[in-house]
From TrEMBL:
It is an enzyme of class 4 (lyase). Keywords: Lyase, Porphyrin biosynthesis. Belongs to the uroporphyrinogen-III synthase family. Catalyzes cyclization of the linear tetrapyrrole, hydroxymethylbilane, to the macrocyclic uroporphyrinogen III. Pathway: Porphyrin-containing compound metabolism; protoporphyrin-IX biosynthesis; coproporphyrinogen-III from 5-aminolevulinate: step 3/4. This is Uroporphyrinogen-III synthase. One of its GO terms (biological process) is uroporphyrinogen III biosynthetic process. It catalyses: hydroxymethylbilane = uroporphyrinogen III + H2O. Pfam families: HEM4.
Length: 259
């Protein structure tokens, strides 16, 4: 049997990636080390949802954040207010917003080459933001780049965390798989997940192909000691599979490098 592709993506997005890989004949194993959990609604969150029509722009960070926002707006706004511009870092988040709320979403230009906060911030409509109110819908933690840059450009920024990430140790069998380097490639699309997984990676794992979804993640991976980096053009299954196709079918030589 061919070596499996290890994927590290929670929820429906992980299932979609696994299905796309299997359709191409790949063996897949999921490293279920992170779960996404919606946060209980607080009085502050409720005030934000009730005042949603006061925002000029809403930026949604992830598909799960998009689902949480959609569920909240369904409760408080039977008909969405008009005049709000919606933004997302990636196409999967944009698709979730369109499917669940029916709104058009601004995303980074294809010429940016990848879906990142930096690419989103390059959009012309996010350059001059004086007197504009912007809502960031995200999970707990995460990078402050978007909020800080938008504020520097004149926006009044409100950030609401709608979910949390919970991390778990690898199952023993998957720890063995990872430490042995007996897999074709590892796919990771989140810095938090990459740092979490690095705890179980010895030199054999660090020598195996690692597919990441941005140059920023590749930089982090290099700092963590990963040696064989493939940077996909984004976090979609198509982009990740295209990067996988540049890997050796049998993975890297697990004996290369030094211990």
């Amino acid at each position: 049997m061919s070596q499996p592709v290890l994927i590290c993506r929670p929820g429906e997005r992980g299932e979609a990636l696994a299905a796309a890989l299997r359709e191409r004949g790949e063996s897949v194993e999921s490293l279920n080390v992170m779960q996404l959990e919606a946060l209980p609604e607080t009085p502050e969150m409720r005030r934000i949802w009730l005042d949603i029509d006061q925002y000029h722009k809403i930026i949604v960070i992830s598909p799960f954040a998009a689902t949480c926002l959609s569920e909240a707006l369904d409760r408080f706004w039977p008909q969405l207010p008009i005049g709000i511009d919606y933004y997302s870092v990636g196409s999967a988040t944009a698709a979730t917003l369109y499917d669940q709320l029916g709104v058009r979403v601004h995303v980074p230009a294809p010429s940016a080459g990848e879906d990142t906060s930096e690419a989103l911030l390059a959009l012309a409509s996010l350059q001059q933001l004086g007197h504009q109110r912007i809502l960031l819908v995200a999970g707990e933690g995460g990078r402050p780049l978007l909020a800080e840059t938008l504020a520097e450009r004149g926006a009044q920024v409100t950030r609401v965390a709608v979910y949390r990430r919970t991390f778990h140790p690898l199952e023993p069998a998957l720890q063995t798989r990872l430490c042995s380097g007996n897999y074709r490639a590892l796919i990771v699309t989140s810095s938090e997940l990459l740092e979490h997984l690095a705890k179980w990676c010895n030199q054999a794992a660090l020598n195996q192909p690692l597919i990441v979804s941005s140059r920023r993640l590749a930089t982090l991976a290099g700092i963590l000691g990963f040696c064989d980096l493939k940077v996909a053009s984004g976090a979609t299954p198509a982009a990740l599979i295209a990067a996988l196709e540049t890997c050796d079918p049998q993975g890297a030589d697990v004996d290369q490098g030094t211990y």
